[in-house]
């Protein structure tokens, strides 16, 4: 099978699940660069000179967007034919909306993976409603990473017999318990500093934890639009001795921090715009490392975190509830360790990226033209 995978970015530290997908599915080529992906991992472009230059494409897209889409459609079809592509997997709904007509015209089965905002955010759903309604019923497979996303898509396209819930996975051979735990009670979060990740909510809860455990430590991996606000909160509330901002790190760089920590925290919320998570990969990675999680009853998190068994969950915006959950785990070492063991087993059984990639692969291979 000559599989082509498309994504919006060449690489993003917050999209490790797509990196794993590519690694396990081994496509013949990967397209990237925005919702109209045109560059390949091998350094090619679907465009000839001078369209292969970003400045030329940018100008054309701004001046004549409809014409640019027609040009993109033409050269995408040429690329698909010349590379003898017989299956196309697109990450994110908006990207899928720009490739499906070319696939239909060439008889190439296409599948779409919805990863979060593209199936949840009201603005995005409204913007792509017409395209979603047309492309979803004709897709080889519509893959959502959380069951909660299904209703939004079927509200647009009607009942979909081709929709499948396959969560993001984790490399359990890499993310595993290892080494000695920190001597200091350590909480950790790995997430972009974005509204739906709730970084300020996590900090407010941790502030309460510090009142009972003044030596507690929170390490925060990531950056993003709310990073400066988070640092300002720490300064204002005199938490500098308790909170460490580690910045954006690669998986290899943050793995030792996760393995040495005691509890993973993330206060995911639905934003004012309606954006929400799918299944946060960082929670899966932490659980694979044997950490219990304190998080929220949000999107796919209650599937990833079995309440009372592999972690503790609270309602969105319940700062006090999150703090109490953290304090409970801080106070009960045996329970904390037992939950960590259960968390590892849960990930091995249900979120092993090798097993989940095989599920996706089986969907792509079941081709009916």
Helix content estimate: 40-55%
Strand order of the largest sheet: 3-2-1-4-5-6-7
Gross morphology is elongated
What radius of gyration results from the CA coordinates?
22 Å
Brief synopsis:
The protein is an alpha/beta fold and 369 residues long. It has two domains: 3-169 and 353-365, Rossmann fold; 186-350, Glycogen Phosphorylase B (Rossmann fold), CATH 3.40.50.
Characterize the structure shown:
Helix 3 packs across helix 5 (100-106), helix 10 (199-212) packs across helix 15 (319-331) and helix 13 (281-288) packs across helix 16 (333-350). Strands 3-2-1-4-5-6-7 form a seven-stranded mixed sheet, sandwiched between helices. A six-stranded parallel sheet has the order 10-9-8-11-12-13, with helices on both faces. It folds into two domains: 3-169 and 353-365, Glycogen Phosphorylase B (Rossmann fold, 3-Layer(aba) Sandwich); 186-350, Glycogen Phosphorylase B (Rossmann fold, 3-Layer(aba) Sandwich). The mean pLDDT is 95. The protein has 369 residues and is an alpha/beta fold. The chain has 17 helices and 13 strands.
């Amino acid at each position: 099978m000559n599989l082509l995978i498309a994504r919006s970015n060449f690489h993003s530290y917050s999209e490790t699940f797509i990196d794993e997908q590519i690694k396990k599915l081994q496509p013949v080529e990967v397209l990237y660069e925005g919702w109209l992906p045109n560059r390949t991992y091998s350094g090619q472009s679907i465009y000839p000179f001078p369209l292969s230059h970003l400045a030329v494409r940018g100008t054309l897209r701004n001046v004549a967007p409809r014409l640019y889409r027609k040009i993109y459609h033409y050269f995408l079809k040429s690329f698909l034919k010349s590379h003898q592509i017989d299956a196309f997997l697109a990450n994110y709904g908006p990207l899928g909306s720009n490739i499906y007509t070319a696939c239909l015209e060439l008889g190439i089965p296409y599948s779409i993976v919805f990863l979060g905002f593209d199936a949840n955010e009201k603005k995005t759903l409204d913007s792509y409603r017409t395209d979603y309604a047309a492309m979803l019923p004709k897709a080889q497979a519509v893959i959502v990473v959380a069951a909660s996303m299904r209703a939004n898509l079927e509200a647009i396209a009607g009942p979909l017999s081709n929709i499948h819930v396959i969560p993001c996975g984790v490399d359990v051979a890499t993310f595993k318990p290892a080494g000695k735990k920190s001597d200091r009670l350590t909480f950790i979060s790995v997430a972009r500093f974005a509204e739906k990740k709730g970084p300020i909510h996590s900090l407010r809860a941790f502030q309460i934890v510090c009142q009972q455990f003044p030596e507690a430590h929170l390490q925060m991996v990531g950056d993003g639009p709310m990073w400066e606000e988070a640092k300002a909160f720490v300064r204002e509330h005199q938490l500098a001795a308790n909170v460490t901002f580690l910045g954006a790190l690669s998986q290899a760089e943050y793995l030792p921090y996760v393995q040495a920590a005691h509890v993973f925290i993330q206060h995911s919320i639905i934003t004012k715009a309606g954006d929400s998570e799918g299944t946060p990969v960082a929670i899966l990675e932490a659980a694979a490392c044997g950490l219990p999680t304190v998080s929220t009853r949000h999107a796919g998190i209650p599937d990833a975190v079995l309440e009372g068994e592999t972690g503790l969950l609270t309602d969105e915006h319940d700062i006090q509830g999150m703090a109490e959950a953290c304090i409970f785990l801080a106070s009960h070492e045996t329970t904390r360790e037992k939950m960590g063991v259960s968390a590892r087993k849960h990930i091995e059984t249900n979120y092993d990226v090798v097993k989940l990639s095989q599920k996706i692969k089986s969907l792509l291979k079941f081709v009916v033209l």
